[in-house]
Amino acid sequence: MGKQLGQGDIDALFAAAGANASAKPEGAEGEVVLERYDFSSAGQISNDQMRAISSVNDLFARNLMHTLGAWLRTPFKMKLVAGEQLPFSEFLERLSSPNYICSIRLEPLGAVGLLELELALASPIVDVLLGGVGRAWPARELTGIEDAILTSVVQMTVQELNLAWQSVGLEFVFEKRESEAAVARMLTSGEKTLCVSFEARMPEAQGAMNLCLPAVVLNAILRRLISEGDRPKRRSKEAQARVRQLMGEVKFGAALQFPSMRLRASELAALEPGMVLRLPLAKHAISELRVGGLQLGRAHPVRTGEHRGAQLEGAIESEDLSGVLETQSAAETMSVN
C-alpha cells in the first residue's frame, strides 16, 4: 500500500513550496518587465527620420527647379510643401482625375513607389515644349504625343531624385505610366506610405507633384540617412562632372591690353581725332591678357575670321589659371554681398 500523508505532512509541503517561491536565486536582478507592443506601429517614421527626409526632398525640389527652368527656358518655381505618413488608401483618395501617375522602382530594395503629376501642371509644360507660351488647358486625357513629351519630363525628374538620394545608395528607376486600376492594386489599402508633396509654379499655371513610397521598406535606408548626416559629404563622380560642366559656363571679364605706362598731361590735352599718340613702348611689345583684372599671360592681337583674337605666347600654368579664377570669384562674391 502507498504511504498516506497526514495533515501535518501536507502543511509542511505547502510551507516548503512557499519558501522556495519567495527566495530569489543568487545574481538575479528581478523579474523582466514586459511592455505592450502595438504591431500597427511597424514602419512608423520617427521625427528624426522625417527631418532627414525633408532635407533631402528640399534639395531635390531646388535642383529640379533649376534643371527644368533651364530646359523649358521659362520661369519655373518649385518647393517642398509637406511630408507625411499616410495609409495607402488615403493617398488614393487624394489623387486627382485625370492625372499622370507612374510607377518607379526603388533599388536595391526591390520595392515600388508612385510619382503623380497633376495635369494642371503637365499641360503648360507640354505647351512650352511644343512652342507655346505655357498656357494651361481644361483637364482632359493626354494624346500620344503629349504623353511621350511628359514622360521625358518625368524621366528627368527621376534623375534628380537619384542625385538627391544617392548619399544613402537609393536609386529610382522609371518604369511606366500606370492606370488608376493598376495603381490601386500595387499596395494594400492599410499599408503605411510616405507621401511627399511639392508645389510647382509657372507664369500662367500652377500644380502639385506627389511622391508616394512604402514606409516599411524605407526604414533601413532612413536610419542610414540619419547616420550619414554628421559625416562629411563626398561628391559622386556624376555630381563632380556636373559641377565642372556648370562652372565651365561661368563668364569672367577679360581684356587684352598694353602694360601700364605713364604719359605727359600735355600730350593727352593736345589729343585730337586722327592724331597718332606715341607710346613709350617698343614696336614689338607684347600685350597682356588679363582676366578679372589679373594678368593671366602675354598675347598678340590677331584676326580670326570676322573677329579679333589673342595669340598666346608661352604656356599658362594651371596653378596660375586656378588662382586667377578663384580670386575673381571671391571678388565678385564680395561685391554681391
TrEMBL record:
Keywords: Bacterial flagellum, Cell membrane, Cell projection, Chemotaxis, Cilium, Flagellar rotation, Flagellum, Membrane. GO terms for molecular function: cytoskeletal motor activity. GO terms for biological process: bacterial-type flagellum-dependent swarming motility; positive chemotaxis. Gene3D superfamilies: CheC-like, SpoA-like. Residues 255-316 form the Flagellar motor switch protein FliN-like C-terminal domain. It comes from the Bacteria. FliM is one of three proteins (FliG, FliN, FliM) that forms the rotor-mounted switch complex (C ring), located at the base of the basal body. This complex interacts with the CheY and CheZ chemotaxis proteins, in addition to contacting components of the motor that determine the direction of flagellar rotation. The keyword Disulfide bond does not apply. It is found in: Bacterial flagellum basal body; Cell membrane. This is Flagellar motor switch protein FliM. GO terms for cellular component: bacterial-type flagellum basal body; plasma membrane.
